[in-house]
Design brief:
The chain is mainly β and 61 residues long. Helices cover 0% and strands 49% of the residues.
């Protein structure tokens, strides 16, 4: 399990970021990861892109 502000890497695209939010929906924990690099590809939001991930998609740094 991950906690808020843990530094993680998204496995599918190797983007490193910080968990800034987590929620539990239908028994599954979901995380919002903010990229540590300005202007990364894909994602959503402003200059510091956000990514929705589940536990299986991220790993601790």
């Amino acid at each position: 399990m991950f906690e808020l502000y843990d530094k993680v890497k998204i496995k599918s695209n190797s983007i490193v970021g910080t968990i800034i939010d987590k929620s539990n929906i239908n028994g599954k924990t979901n995380y919002v990861v903010e990229s540590d690099t300005k202007g990364t590809a894909v994602g959503y939001g402003g200059e510091w892109k956000l990514y929705d991930c589940n536990e299986n998609e991220i790993e601790k740094m």
